[in-house]
Design brief:
- This protein has 19 helices and 31 strands.
- With about 750 residues, the chain is α+β, with helices and mostly antiparallel strands.
- The chain has a nine-stranded antiparallel β-sheet with strand order 1-8-9-10-11-18-15-14-13.
- Strand 14 and strand 15 form a beta hairpin.
Length: about 750
């Protein structure tokens, strides 16, 4: 049953977790897995429906505000709630917390794209019925969220009522004391219209500052008697059935300003007219997912629990990734409000590669969204004192920096190089020459300009001071190895692409000169990459090794994550890493260092890394695979695959860890299979995983579909679609032709 995730828990903490685990989405719309009928009165559900990129702007309150600090931040808004359907059986309200639950299970069907709850319930007065709640967020009609409720009597019942409500008076969830969550600004949207006309409930709401509107148009399919009550901000419809049984389908269509322009209610009405019946919706859903899984599935035999985790992660990435020009994928996707719906560098480094190698059109969309924020990045660079270049934000929705804590936010200049890196990777995988001319060249030029203006030449070396690398426990440092190595790669490629596009309009438009481009090349060639001769490792930065080492052996479990228990300055004074930093650079730009340096650096940083960030385990797994530490590779990998299902970080209730989900795939494909994307093409250095009988996956590369299977001490490469291609297997070149598998020893 590795295509289904099932749960029967009703305890409070697991219910909150399950709201995230059972969320449904399609990249545009996301609905948390809340109970339609609600919970106990004293239970605080994180009730949420979200539209990707639909946000409000809120003031940032500073005790002391300095120049360049952002004035406001953007927050993903909880929008109109259409989940509620109450069930009354002979006047008694159905609740899983009253009466007797004879049986209960909830299942997420990842191969078919819907969730279902089956309940056998006996009321306090002895009335007995079986209830089924089926819900779907359509991949085919992105605006559609539908619920089907079926009630089957078991005992003698005279009347069943289903009470459906659509509510525009909603708030966001807040929780004080956790920097990963919002602590204020709960009220972000305001309903200004709630009517029921021609059998359609129509509610429209707006934000005050971002000037965005959202609408929900709801239609019910039923055979019972029908009453309607309209409030100021909500509409309630009551459907009355005989005791023989009841069935109700609720079709909810969401439209918003960002995609649908004006007259949102009419757009919703028009979409409602084209919606098929519920069975057809489910059939379309399965068809969409059949194609997704044909290419994207990663199959493992010998460990069903792990297989479940892998498919769960891939499915939720698909549900959350933006598939239009105005959206991306946030740290929690569309599953919750953690990190306020912001897009981080998580996208480019941890999530983007999954789609790049399986669904390149989705990957391209992510890059085009970043490109759409290039002007905001240019403006931010100037605000930060740079004469030119583009400085991308640490966290944002539409482009402006939304982080108020600059040491671990704006100071992470590496994000500009991370974004450039992903643009380069897309070009290497697709060889899309038009993309190079239209987008890649401009992004590389503007990010190279940032590095040229941020760093400087001294004693023949190019230095970059006062930045923060990926490790947020070490901030505002000189010559962070990761930052410098990624900047080097960024400028090398900017110089290379400049040579290719000379004579085109872009170079003239941007005013790039030969002298400017030559300086990028000079800076890259002379980039200072900290190295300690005595230890034989790349130093994380100029001063990291001069600090006292944090005593991790005597740090209690209750003190993790350290960021919730220690002031940042305390952390900054020690050698302690929140996550992979130098080790991450050794993965992404491995050719900059020799293998012995990479090996010694891995061993050193492993001892001082807490993995308080979910972005860390997968990187250590990948590099352990590269270095032949097979047991370590598998250990770290196991920390990623079921992180959310098993709630390993104890905060899955706030939303799923999207970057970790991407990291699971990376650990398998870039780790165990040893994939690397080089200028000359794809190369593999696979390793046998002792715990698995079989391991296979597929990749798209320059119009081809390639299947890779590791089994019985060998790897089999199969070109499924496309023209013949040459790949690398360790140091050997292997020619693939369609339907002619090539087997090689591990």
């Amino acid at each position: 049953m590795t295509w289904q995730l099932s749960n029967t828990a009703l305890d409070e903490q697991q219910l909150l977790v399950n709201e995230s685990l059972m969320f449904l989405g399609n990249g545009y719309l996301g609905v948390r897995g809340n109970f339609e009928e609600g919970y106990r009165d004293d239970f605080k559900s994180i009730h949420g429906t979200y539209i990707n990129a639909f946000h409000e702007e809120t003031d940032i309150q500073y005790g002391e505000k300095l120049f360049g600090f952002p004035d406001f931040q953007q927050k993903l808004a909880n929008v109109i709630d259409a989940q509620q359907i109450d069930v009354l059986i002979d006047g008694e309200r159905f609740s899983l917390f009253e009466g007797e639950v004879v049986s209960f299970d909830r299942t997420l069907h990842m191969d078919q794209g819907y969730s279902v709850r089956h309940i056998h319930w006996r009321s306090p007065n002895g009335k007995e019925a079986k209830l089924t709640f089926t819900r779907v967020v359509s991949f085919v009609t992105k605006e559609l969220f539908a619920i089907k409720v079926d009630v089957e009597p078991v005992s003698d019942i005279k009347e069943i009522k289903l009470v459906s409500k659509v509510n525009g008076d909603v708030t966001n969830y807040v929780e004080k004391g956790d920097p990963r969550l919002a602590s204020g600004h709960a009220k972000l949207i305001y309903a200004d219209q709630a009517v029921n006309e021609s059998g359609l409930t129509q509610i429209k709401a707006r934000t005050e500052r971002s000037n965005l509107e959202v609408a929900c148009v709801t239609r019910h399919e039923h055979e019972g008697a029908h009453d309607v009550e309209c409030g100021d901000y909500d509409v309630t419809e009551t459907f009355t059935f005989s005791g023989d049984g009841a069935s109700l389908i609720k079709y909810n269509v969401y439209t918003d300003t960002l995609r649908h322009g004006d007259d949102l209610l009419q757009k919703g009405i028009d979409i409602q007219k084209g919606i098929a019946d519920f069975d057809t919706i489910l059939s379309e859903q399965k068809g969409y997912l059949d194609e997704f899984w044909r290419v994207s599935d990663v199959a493992v035999s010998g460990d069903d629990s792990l297989q479940e985790g892998i498919r769960f992660n891939l499915y939720h990435l698909l549900q959350s990734v933006g598939k239009d020009s105005v959206s991306n994928i946030s740290a929690k996707g569309l599953s919750g409000e953690g990190y306020e719906g912001h897009y981080f560098w998580d996208t480019e480094i941890y999530i983007f590669p999954v789609f790049l190698m399986t669904n390149p059109e989705i990957a391209k969309g992510l890059l085009l969204h970043r490109y759409s924020t290039l002007d905001a990045a240019r403006a931010r660079a100037k605000e930060m004192g740079h004469k030119q270049g583009a400085l991308f934000p640490w966290r944002t929705i539409t482009g402006p920096e939304s982080s108020a804590f600059f040491p671990a936010g704006t100071a992470q200049y590496h994000i500009s190089a991370d974004i450039a890196y992903s643009f380069i990777q897309y070009y290497l995988v697709t060889k899309d020459e038009q993309f190079k001319e239209d987008y890649l060249a401009e992004v590389l030029i503007e990010t190279a300009r940032l590095w040229a203006d941020t760093g400087f030449m001294k004693d023949g070396k190019f230095l970059i001071n006062n930045v923060t690398g990926p490790d947020e426990y070490t901030c505002i440092v000189n010559n962070n190895y990761y930052t410098n190595a990624m900047a080097k790669y960024n400028m090398e490629w900017a110089y290379k692409i400049y040579q290719d596009v000379q004579g085109g309009g872009l170079v003239e438009k941007l005013g790039v000169t030969d002298e400017e481009a030559a300086f990028w090349n000079e800076a890259a060639e002379n980039m200072f990459l900290p190295y300690n001769e005595e230890l034989g490792i790349n130093e994380q930065d100029d001063t990291f090794l001069n600090k006292e080492v944090w005593d991790l052996d005597n740090t209690s479990e209750e003190e993790y994550p350290l960021l919730l228990n220690y002031h940042p300055l305390t952390l900054y004074r020690y050698q302690v890493c929140k996550q992979a930093d130098t080790v991450l650079a050794h993965f992404l730009v491995e050719d900059v260092a020799d293998e012995e340096t990479i090996r010694k650096s891995y061993d050193y940083y492993e001892r001082v890394t807490t993995h308080d960030s979910s972005l860390s385990y997968c990187v250590f797994s990948i590099m352990a695979s590269k270095l032949g530490h097979d047991e370590k590779a598998y250990h770290y990998f196991n920390e990623t695959a079921r992180l959310d299902i098993d709630n390993l970080h104890k905060n899955t209730k706030d939303g799923l860890h999207m970057a970790n989900m991407g990291g699971t795939w990376l650990a398998m494909v870039y780790g165990f299979a040893g994939l690397r994307v080089k200028e000359e093409g794809l190369t593999f250095a696979p390793r046998q995983v002792a715990a698995w009988d079989d391991f296979s996956f597929s990749l798209r590369f320059r119009g081809r579909l390639i299947n890779v299977e590791l089994k019985d001490g060998q790897v089999v490469y199969t070109l499924v679609e496309g023209e013949g291609v040459t790949i690398g297997h360790y140091d050997e070149r292997v020619q693939l032709t369609v339907d002619s598998p090539v087997a090689k020893s591990l």
